[in-house]
Amino acid sequence: MRELILMRHAKSSWDDPTLSDFERPLNERGERDAPRMGEHLADLGIRPDLIVASPAKRAKKTAKIVAQKLGYDTRAIEWRESLYEASPQTLLYLICQLPNEAKRVMMVGHNPGFTMLANLLGDVAIENIPTAGVVIIAFDAKSWDEACRMKGHTILFDYPKKLKAQA
Predict the structure, then answer these.
(1) Does the reported pTM lie above 0.70?
(2) pLDDT tens per residue across span 98-115
(3) Among 31, 63, 69, 167, which residue has the least CB neighbours within 10 Å?
(4) Rounded to whole angstroms, what are the CA distances from 107 to 19, 49, 145?
(5) Structural domains of the chain, with CATH
């Protein structure tokens, strides 16, 4: 059994037009939503064996905040340049290469690649993973090399506005 947790970075700021896309930080809502989603995942008992994240500023901050909420050592986060603006094919390649010791892996990155990947691997049609949104897909597979080549079962699709509506 394998579980892939896809998390889109929290809401970013467009306040400084001189910043490159890579350097955009979280905005106020992002700073609020990232810990909220981390706490939600912790309440559900989600504990990743590995967190792999884009090094873009907004994804990096999201990954660190969520890791802390999940009791994951932020120093153990793997930063992968290839996650920034990644295509579904690039993401699949990365998943195929994941270490088999890590049965539950969280990836923190960007759209549109993450939404396209969730639709490719999962069994629920998702129009868009909102900022700070999380999709968890379970695979009946012995290895990541096997999981990346099969359809999994989408077991969770949550995001801040959905949690707010349920409160």
Answers:
(1) yes
(2) 999 999 999 999 999 999
(3) 167
(4) 24, 11, 16
(5) 2-166 (3.40.50.1240)
